[in-house]
Write a structure and sequence with these properties.
Structural class: mainly alpha
Largest sheet: 3 strands, mixed
Bound molecules: zinc ion
Radius of gyration: 18 Å
Strand order of the largest sheet: 1-3-2
Number of domains: 1
Order of helices and strands: HHHEEEHHHHHHHHHH
Number of helices: 13
Distance between the termini: 29 Å
Number of strands: 3
Shape: globular
Strand content: 5-15%
Length: 267
């Protein structure tokens, strides 16, 4: 990248950062969460262990380091930069991604395959980071499984009850969230990706892709994202949000070439 471009980008980012700080982030919203961050991380580790042992996790180092690099860039400027974030690719042709409390994010190769630039990937990752930042997963688990069970998982108890609860917890996390939670993850995801230097239009492109897919294979899509709000509404909301940004964001890059090189590895 040329030097003047960097300067423009930095001034643009600081403008966005100011814009962002002025809003109430998901981390700023108060609600009753009994689990501490430390317990949440322990819990996340238990869930991640279960997912890692029951799914084909990609061992492609170049792919992993690429996804990790994009992810860390966004995590760093999120409202929970204190967490250690882990990004893994599940080598299955399913179009999905999900987040575990404590900073564990999974993306399926099926989803990587339908995207065509890094800004879209940044959109997916930023959406999932937002679920963690807003503690959507931990709140849902607390509600469904109860605090005591979560605590016993976090403490690493190895009873049959805890093991069953871990399996149930993973299933809950895979189900997606309420409409409000999804809109919130889109909203903060769009901020985060833009603040990380990605063209926010990538988020719109990603949602358009999901919409197209839901038309071609409604049954498959329904099962995966049953509780997700209608994609049309999500697109409209994100478009409105981008319209309120500094118009210069439209000059932010998509990094299509970077992404294509990685996508070629998936074949
Ligand atoms: Zn979501």
């Amino acid at each position: 990248m040329h030097r003047p471009k960097i300067i423009i980008l930095i001034s643009l980012l600081s403008t966005l950062l100011l814009l962002f700080c002025a809003t109430t982030g998901p981390g700023g919203k108060k609600s009753l969460i009994l689990i501490s961050t430390k317990q949440e991380v322990s819990l996340g580790k238990e869930f991640a262990q279960e997912i890692d042992s029951t799914n084909p996790i990609s061992k492609d180092e170049i792919l992993n380091s690429y996804v990790n690099q994009v992810g860390q860039k966004i995590a760093k400027i999120s409202d929970r930069p204190d967490l250690k974030y882990h990004f893994s690719v599940i080598d299955t042709p399913i179009v999905n991604a999900f987040a575990c409390p404590g900073g564990f994010i999974y993306i399926y190769t099926g989803l990587l395959n339908i995207m065509d630039n890094e800004a879209q990937l940044a959109g997916v990752i930023a959406h999932e980071i937002s679920h963690i930042v807003a503690r959507h997963g931990i709140k849902r688990l607390q509600k469904v499984l109860g605090f005591q069970i979560l605590l016993s998982i976090a403490l690493g108890e190895s009873s049959q009850l805890t093991q069953n609860a871990i399996s149930a917890g993973v299933a809950i996390l895979l189900q997606g969230y309420s409409r409000e939670n999804e809109f919130e993850a889109d909203e903060f995801g769009t901020y985060y990706m833009t603040n990380s230097g990605y063209n926010p239009e990538g988020m719109v492109q990603l949602l358009e892709k999901l919409k197209k897919l839901s038309k071609s294979d409604p049954k498959f899509f329904e099962k995966l994202l049953a509780s997700h709000p209608p994609t049309d509404q999500r697109i409209k909301k994100v478009e409105n949000q981008i319209r309120a940004f500094d118009p210069k964001v439209e000059n932010l890059p998509f990094f299509a070439d970077n992404y294509q090189k990685i996508k070629d590895r998936l074949k």
